[in-house]
């Protein structure tokens, strides 16, 4: 048996140093002192000392986890990583996680659903992108899949529109074909599959308009001319034709531009 010979307050509020048989033994919180009634002259067995230390670690882990969770919802993995940074034992961390799982404050399945709903409300990510983000937060594939199965493609339309709605302003600057290609590429890079991306693009109500196409080939054609104007005529026409083709314009429109039917080629240097 060891006897508590001194209990002294630390500079840190709420923490106390415990001395056994005249020597410093361990520190404990005010909560631990009260729970085990640790006063001067209290005698403790080795088993009781270990129980007190574990209780104190568990309390510390619980308090830290509660504070961490108070700011926003977290995944189990995020809480574990945070607590590991606080030099807590695995046992204390696991006990804290179990405590908050039992209370319902830690629930990866519920977290996934809330995470997806928030994106649908204000975000711009598709299902695949959301799945990747959740994996980085340590959520299992099964839970991610179950959460995504609660939503259908229609639920993601608005998020996709938020992502590409600015592309509307590119009409008259890009060929419709190029505008669509860029829109679909952007959507798929943010986790929307091809079919869903096509549906989202269709919701923008953009159509291939002759006036817009004329403005676009004029703009892109002048840009191409300025880029290649120092080449000889044959090379220049070849380069301009290739440039416009790769930017989504039809062969007919390109031939009309090169024939001077859209812009007087002799006046291109004035632009």
TrEMBL record:
What are the RecX third three-helical domain coordinates in residue numbering?
211-258
Look up the record and report any one GO term of the cellular component aspect: cytoplasm
Keyword Cytoplasm carried by entry: yes
Q: Locate the RecX first three-helical domain: which residues?
A: 63-98
UniProt keywords (A-Z) are: Cytoplasm
Pfam families, A to Z: RecX_HTH1, RecX_HTH3
Gene3D superfamilies in the cross-refs: Winged helix-like DNA-binding domain superfamily/Winged helix DNA-binding domain
**GO BP annotations listed:** regulation of DNA repair
Transmembrane ranges? none
Cell compartments where the protein resides:
Cytoplasm
Annotated function:
Modulates RecA activity.
Q: Which family does it belong to?
A: Belongs to the RecX family.
- Which HAMAP family does this chain map to? RecX
- What name does this protein carry? Regulatory protein RecX
